[in-house]
Amino acid sequence: MPNGLYCWGFACVLAVIALFMGHPADVLGQESTIQFSNDIQPILARRCFACHGPDKAEGGLRLNSPETISVVLESGNRAIVPNDLQASAILERIRSTEEDTRMPPEGKPLTEIEQQRIARWIEQGANWKQHWAFEPLSNPQVPIRPDGTTANNPIDAFVEAKLSSKELAMSQRAEPRVLLRRLSYDLTGLPPTPEQVADFEQRAAIDFQAAWETEVDRLLASEHYGERWARHWLDVVRYAETNSFERDGAKPYAWRYRDYVIRAFNEDKPYDQFLMEQLAGDELPEVTKDSLIATGFYRLGIWDDEPADRELAMYDGFDDILTTVGQGLLGLTLNCSRCHDHKIDPIPTKDYYSTVAFFRNLTPNGYGPHVERPLIGSPEDRAAYAAKEADIRDNGNRLQMQINEIEAMLRQELESINTTTDQFDLDDMEYRFFRDSFQKLPDFDSLKPETVGKLEPPLLDISLATRPDDFGFVFVGKLIVPKDGEYTFRLDSDDGSRLTIDSKVIIEYDGIHGTGRPQRSGVRLTAGRHDFRVDYFQGSYGKGLQLDWSGPGFKRRSLTRQDRKSVDLNQVLQSAAAEILNADHVAQFKKLRRELEENSKRKPWDEYGMCVSESGTSAPQTQILMRGSPQGKGDEVQPAFPSILGGGVPSIEPNEAAKTTGRRLAFAKWITSPDNRLTSRVFVNRVWQHHFGRGIVRSSNNFGQLGDPPTHPELLDYLATRFVQNGWRPKSLHKLILTSRAYQQSSLASSDVIEKDPNNDGFNRFDLRRLSAEEIRDSILVANGRLNRTMYGPSIYPELSREVLASQSVPGKGWEKSSYQDQARRSVYIHIKRSLLVPMMSNFDFPEPDTSCEARFITTQPGQALGMMNGDFLNQQSMEFAQRLATEAGSELRSQVARGYLLALSRNATNTEIDRGVRLIETLIGKHGLSPDVALANFALFLFNTNEFVYID
Amino acid sequence: MRRNFCGRTRREFLWQTGAGFGSAALAGLLSQDGFFARAGASDSAKLPQPHFTPKAKNVIFLFMYGGPSHIDTFDYKPTMKGRDNQTVEVKTFGRGGHKNSGRIVEPRWDFKQYGKCGKWVSDLFPNLAQYVDDIAFIHSMTADSPIHGSAMLMMNSGRVQSGHPCLGSWVNYGLGTINGNLPGFVVMLDPKGGPISGAKNWSSGYMPASYQGTIFRAQGTPILDLKAREGVTRSQQRTILDSLHEQNSEHAALRGNRSELLSRISSYELAFKMQEHAPEAVDIASESADTHQLYGIDQDRTRDFGTKCLLARRLVERGVRFIQIYSGGAHNDDNWDAHADLKQNHDFHAGNTDKPIAGLLEDLKRRGLLEETLVVWGGEFGRQPTAEYAQGTGRDHNSYGFTMWMAGGGIRGGTSVGATDELGAAAVEKPFHVKNLHATVLHQLGIDPNRLSYFHSGLDQKLVGVEPIEPIHEIIS
């Protein structure tokens, strides 16, 4: 839905009235040639398809294909006979004034203009051309004025041509001050400084074009540009930093994705590359840190770690991706075909599932190594990672061998003084406890553990379960192998278990079963520390887990707790017993243990990110789900592109290095192909939308037949074509738009113009824009001089009141404390917790981040006023603003007021305004007994609350 | 599908002109300003119209968070008596997963018959039981999930996934709000804390935020930021607002008095009025001692919930469409989630709420408000007939069958519909889904649940989903 909804809705009323009160005879006016896709198809889709469309053929009539519109109906008539108005029964029905016969029966009749369009369309042969958005891009010619000249900027040529057909013209150019404020907010989300305004006004008076271009270039080069434009993208890709649902846990490193987007815009990353990285950054020939971080795209959605129906939840996850890719990247509501063929657009359910097939092999969201991956890009990185990993391992082994030696000596000494200890074969053991029922071992890494803890002593122990049945455990740590040789493991469990050493499965003993039949397996191990892991689950009834091992020099040592009485040498050494041991040995043992511990804390890599991963190079099969239900599995489908966009079978190369199917890369190549009909149109439209307040296609997530048709189809195609030709570079697109006269128009328009074009369909003026939630908050911090311009990094947490936190089931959980300085950073860095959005942000229409947001609502409601007048943030920042005014403008009240206007509104105050401000402050002091400081702070609050502060011209 | 105003439904159009929290009044103010009159569209300042004559005007949803046990409250299972600790074959699904058998925990309370209808009610609700002739019990409720997070979302928004508008948002979207000085969708939380998933339970999802539930506090300032800062007097605030009005009017005049600028000016006047009216709505000191007693406000134990029930009545009187009160908050035994000691848990929560709910029904009846106020009682699911653990009386969650009840607002009192099996493990007779419950609420408010739609994500979204859903006709008078 378009930005600036509020005014837009109002304008609609005028439009409707104009239609009814106008002159029906010639409402079509100049519209001589009917364009099926723009003028007719939307009417049929919205008003007729419910009964005469793909699903229903009441009376025998379907209006969704050229073959069916002219068939002989049950009544014996034909609805549409091309070129023959008399024989076309549809006209009589839509024009009827009888309730019983009029079509459509539901709702208001078709408008006069709609009726006339249908008639003229039949008259002209009822041609049937595909919906505009599904046609390949055209390459429109830039219109030439009747006098043979052309506009300087091609955009103006298109806009002028459309306006002149309605006998309208562009509004005059806005004042330089207004324009700079507009431009500055538009590109950076921040106001210009008073100095920048003054400077620009001077230069513009001499040579506007040159001065303007300088400002456009300056602001496009500003790092704040990325912060502003990244946020538009984050709305589209449902960016949030938690999972929603019961625990609403934080997504690991989600903020790196946000930083990636900011950097991408600042670097003017080509849009095709931007998409390639997000869709298939791990499968590219050249993987980089950035391209890995970009794949966090797949991980941004909501995720239930404890769904009632796991299989359905998996498909919900695919649907989330398909919805975002479909609407966000293609402007297609693919999601509408999940359960049945799309009702309006020709997208069969089969196409939905063959698109799902591209993503079928993705590992689910969650925690663990399949999501949190080391950011290893280049081959050098890979080598460095391997070397570091080896170094940590070797170092650990070396230390362990030394420890073994000393340990043996200490043991001997202990035995000689009659204390028995056991050597532990496991070390650094951690347990993860899961609370759920399983029939077989799940992928525990994708589940959220209920508790995580250290195993002390380091022995497998299922008595740590907090419930008797229905649980799972993962035990991970190190196995200490005393010397090179052949070792045998015996694993017994009730129910399933699995032993993994160095990422290799040694014993798999899955399923529901009792104990008594231990599984054994031999393996060759080198001396030193090895990655060790046991997965285990318990269903109901009997339970148990035993693991022991034997090898060179020892027989059957248990690794489980219950059958072993244990004394930890470490504990002995903490006790008084240590005093009788060789002090050197003890000291050295302790030192080595410390070193080992430090070594184990070393990570082979310093940067991790939230990334996509697949479970190998081959994918499970994808089947059509009847009515979207996993219980109704139908035919198998292969990855294929939606037929509506030309279809085609992708060429797919499994990627051994990335351990992926290569399917996403094929999809990414298709979506970024210059031939793709929608990708460039959809993006160009979004850029336009954020400059003009609405897209050329108002429904920027829906280019289908239920979306709004473009007001300037040729302009859209022209921009899209040119965008692709220029290498998909956003900044050159911005520049083209910003240097047009269309963009520089004044927001003031005569009532005559407003009456002629209430919706501003022709872009004959600039629409007022209310600042976004982020802009309002940031502007307050700019005005009082406190904005902390630090970029990037983990998110910040504005302070929330106790009342707000009380709405959580565990008040304060997941909401950290940021320093006062950090809280003054830009709003794009605020932590986005799905179940706890910052009230000031959502008050001003920050979107619910669970689904893609094409355009934010612009609501006006008293809750906003309450927060702006009484809220903690506003009042605190007003105090800060007052202090700044007192410091910078001296003690004279008039100059403080003047400075306030200048800093808050980027303009000089009028004398009336200065009088008003002074009067306000004096009344507050004189009549209400406020101190001068507090009165000045109230004046600051007043400025923040003005319409001019939140609305730009 | 009715698409008029530039392809939008009438309701979609209305919120653009500012429906939702405080907006009816906004529209009214604008109309007084001659704004709509000038535009020649004064009727758009009116509320959206119901589809047919409504039985109810308002809803009070008493949310028993955590999931009360139906067989220990209203779903009488006499044959279970004496079967304690027996092992039975029964399919259950709760947080402990799927099980095929379990150990019976027989109902821990005695049941007695009440009212003309002879309804059996357990000793947990001696006061509430006096009103069974006003109540319709639905014993065959089912839901899609037995896990709190998703089940809460389902009961509040009809889906197990987050991101969809809640029932209260739909009601306000469908009918608009009558009192511009108060939010149309009010939520009151338990003093122990919010429910799992917090604000997701009163989110407006893909609708504008003005439709989201507003947290109302029984003590102190009822609404966030409603109160002026410490030490700021009303006349002082008026002084600032006067300057603001001047400044903004000047600004708007230079811009052709654009509607969005005018309504923002009005929103400040409205906020100022709300500061006066909202505290009045929560001023229960003005109620008689008898009324306080009726709701149990004079007793420590029932004071909190009783106060909220009384506030609900006062809000209903002031035209608030949808009020939700949570019994229970936070986790485990702080709500009805009786995994450990069933007796202790339910005695506690029922004891806190029995008197207040009875008082609410009585008070609404006395004032003739029950006829137009739909009261809904229930949790996100029920509980299993068998024990969760080897020891103890704790019951796990049960979404296969549970009980909810409704009263007032055109509901036929003294009726019961549907049944669970002899153990109460699953609905077997006339099973109803949460969607049927939602459909019933909308239907009583005069809204056709299968017609009330909102265009989002390429679809005409409905609270009850794509497939047509019937209200529960058996309980509608």
Question: What this model shows, in words?
Answer:
The complex is a heterodimer of chains A (953) and B (477). Helix content of chain A is 41%, strand content 10%. Chain A is α+β, with helices and mostly antiparallel strands and 953 residues long. Among the domains of chain A are: 36-128, no CATH class; 422-566, Jelly Rolls; 780-858, no CATH class; 872-952. Chain A starts with a helix and ends with a strand. Chain B has one domain: Alkaline Phosphatase, subunit A (3-Layer(aba) Sandwich). Chain B is 30% helix and 18% strand. Chain B has helices at 10-16, 23-32, 35-39, 148-157, 167-175, 234-253, 259-281, 289-294, 300-317, 342-366, 434-444, and strands at residues 58-64, 87-94, 97-103, 111-114, 119-122, 135-142, 185-188, 214-215, 322-327, 373-378, 382-387, 395-398, 402-407, 415-417, 419-420, 427-429, 432-433, 454-456, 459-461. In chain B, β4 and β5 form a beta hairpin. In chain B, α2 (23-32) crosses α7 and α6 (234-253) runs antiparallel to α7 (259-281).
Largest sheet features of chain B: 9 strands, mixed
Structural class of chain B: alpha/beta
Number of helices of chain B: 11
- Can you tell me the CATH architecture of the domain at 422-566 in chain A? Sandwich
Inertia-based shape of chain B? globular
Structural class of chain A: alpha+beta
Q: Assembly type of the shown chains?
A: heterodimer
Sketch the topology of chain B as an H/E string, one letter per element.
Answer: HHHEEEEEEHHEEHHHHEHEEEEEEEEHEE
Helix-strand blueprint:
The complex is a heterodimer of chains A (953) and B (477).
Chain A: H1 5-21, H2 36-52, H3 89-95, H4 112-123, H5 154-165, H6 176-188, H7 194-206, H8 208-221, H9 223-236, H10 254-266, H11 271-280, H12 289-294, H13 310-330, H14 349-356, E1 372-374, H15 379-416, E2 426-435, E3 451-454, E4 471-481, E5 485-494, E6 497-501, E7 504-509, E8 519-525, E9 528-538, E10 544-551, E11 554-558, H16 569-574, H17 583-601, E12 608-610, E13 622-625, E14 633-637, H18 663-671, H19 679-692, H20 713-725, H21 730-738, H22 751-756, E15 769-770, H23 773-783, H24 802-805, H25 820-823, H26 839-843, H27 862-870, H28 872-889, H29 893-905, H30 911-926, H31 932-945, H32 947-950, E16 951-952
Antiparallel strand pairs in A: 1-12, 2-3, 2-4, 4-9, 5-8, 5-10, 6-7, 6-9, 10-11, 13-14, 15-16
Chain B: H1 10-16, H2 23-32, H3 35-39, E1 58-64, E2 87-94, E3 97-103, E4 111-114, E5 119-122, E6 135-142, H4 148-157, H5 167-175, E7 185-188, E8 214-215, H6 234-253, H7 259-281, H8 289-294, H9 300-317, E9 322-327, H10 342-366, E10 373-378, E11 382-387, E12 395-398, E13 402-407, E14 415-417, E15 419-420, E16 427-429, E17 432-433, H11 434-444, E18 454-456, E19 459-461
Parallel strand pairs in B: 1-9, 1-10, 6-14, 6-17, 7-8, 7-9
Antiparallel strand pairs in B: 2-3, 4-5, 6-13, 10-13, 11-12, 15-16, 18-19
Helix pairs in contact in B: 2-7, 6-7, 9-10
